[in-house]
Amino acid sequence: MSYVKLNAAKSAIEVIPKRGAMGLGSGSTVAIFAKELGQRIASGEVEVAVVPSSYQAYQLAIDYNIPLTNLDINPELLLTVDGADEIDKKLNLTKGGGGALFREKIVASASKKLIIIADESKLVNHLGTKSQIPVEVFPFSLGMVQRKIKQMGVESTVRQATKKMGPVVTDNGNFILDLKFPKPILTPSQVATDLKLIPGVIETGIFAGMADEVHIGTEDGAYVLKR
Ligand code: 5RP
User: Fold this and answer.
1) 61, 34 contact by CB (below 8 A)
2) CB 3.0-4.6 Å disulfide test: which of 27, 62, 89, 104 passes with 53?
3) What are the angstrom distances between the C-alpha of 180 and each of 12, 76, 126?
4) Which residue has a Cα nearest atom 4 of ligand 1?
5) Does domain 3-124+208-226 have CATH number 3.40.50.1360?
């Protein structure tokens, strides 16, 4: 168990609402948060239901007895707690390391507030520096999307599964392209828009201007960055 991730999770637990509907992100840091949340629910301290952002998050909710809801019952969520792969100085994010970026963005967009839990290794000056940028793509369009992305001067590779032969298939039945930009991304919002204009691109892992707070766990505790 990583104490750094636990400290980030505990810091976020302090700011969640006592009752209501919230989004549950995905990833290993969120898994630790979900366990903490389950304990608070079991003790009666909080009474929240979650919209899961992936099958992983759904399973976490089941495992830790966290009540589930959905965006039809709760189209507006009080907040979402999620992880990130990169966080720039303006709190723009790269997400999708776990392939859940599409539902994560929907859940974040339904939320009044997006809280990110991470460790210091995720902090970057500009997106595209430490991690590649994932893009969820409709399989039928794959070759065409890769060609258009190449025309933008960006390399892309189809993410491959590790315990199955062939590509990763997302929770939504799509593929993931990981994009390697030749230079750090200085205009994340514009890049995300340009990519989304390609027919077949379902969503990008660039979350520009969405995060409100980032709770960074350290060995000793946590600190909060606000937009
Ligand atoms: C999944 C995500 C995760 O939130 C992101 O990859 C961070 O994960 P971790 O907390 O395991 O580092 O975007 O699609």
Assistant:
1) yes
2) 104
3) 31, 34, 13
4) 83
5) yes
Q: Side chain identity at 19, as an amino acid letter?
A: R
pLDDT in tens, 175-209: 999 999 999 999 999 999 999 999 999 999 999 99
105 C-alpha vs ligand 1 centroid, how far in Å? 13
With CA atoms as reference, report the closest residue to 119 among 37, 33, 207, 29.
29
Dihedral over Cα of 122, 123, 128, 129: its sign: negative
Fold of 133-205: Alpha-Beta Plaits (3.30.70)
**Residue 86 falls in the annotated catalytic set:** no
In contact, 118 and 127? CB cutoff 8 Å: no
Q: How far is the CA of 120 from the centre of ligand 1 (A)?
A: 14
Q: Does residue 31 line the site of ligand 1, with CB under 6 A?
A: no
Q: What is the pTM of this model?
A: 0.97
28 lines ligand 1 (CB under 6 A): yes
Measured distance CA(57)–CA(27) in Å, rounded: 8
Name the residue at shortest CA distance from atom 1 of ligand 1: 98
- At residue 1, does pLDDT exceed 80? no
- Give residue limits of the domains in the chain: 3-124+208-226, 133-205
User: Which is the catalytic residue, given 86, 104, 203, 213?
Assistant: 104
- CA–centroid distance, 83 to ligand 1, in Å, is 5
Ligand 1 pocket residue status of 23, Cβ below 6 Å: no
